[in-house]
Sequence to fold (224 residues):
Amino acid sequence: DARVTQTPRDKVTEMGQEVTMRCQPILGHNTVFWYRQTMMQGLELLAYFRNRAPLDDSGMPKDRFSAEMPDATLATLKIQPSEPRDSAVYFCASGPGTGLDGYTFGSGTRLTVV
Amino acid sequence: KQEVTQIPAALSVPEGENLVLNCSFTDSAIYNLQWFRQDPGKGLTSLLLIQSSQREQTSGRLNASLDKSSGRSTLYIAASQPGDSATYLCAVDGEDDMRFGAGTRLTVKP
Fold:
């Protein structure tokens, strides 16, 4: 089965450090979403891309977060500098973007900032 | 901006009961609606996808319906089992993005 791969699975870092999370979408999928999940806020949309172009990143704190798709096989989400309130599970999802098909989620990156 | 609401937030039922989870959304201009299941500490697993032109989809003991005009979807689970215990999330894929409800946490007691 095709799947979305996220790395790392878990990340513990100190406040102020840079964190990079990676996502490999399913081959052929042209739409990629980044979500953050916490107990308090649920699933929050951070950014999404279509054909590698960012369509909406209004959910991201721009001063510290950045999302990119350097190529069709890789999406990255960076936090610099990281803060304890960034601790959450970050999910990536990809889909064909046709509107007729759904999206597949990765297993997530659990980030803990101490 | 699309807003998605799920009711109830939590549900506890005895094994064998049929149950209904509800999802409502504010903007009817959607492409599709997808129901996911999430087990504690795990990712999201897709259960059913209903395209905007469809009224319902079925998979095993699960049946999802969609009434786009009223902005509602339901997930029906027949003959519930303890293994169905999880959080169920609905996601609405629209023109702007894909938005999630807060989920319904289901517990099925043996």
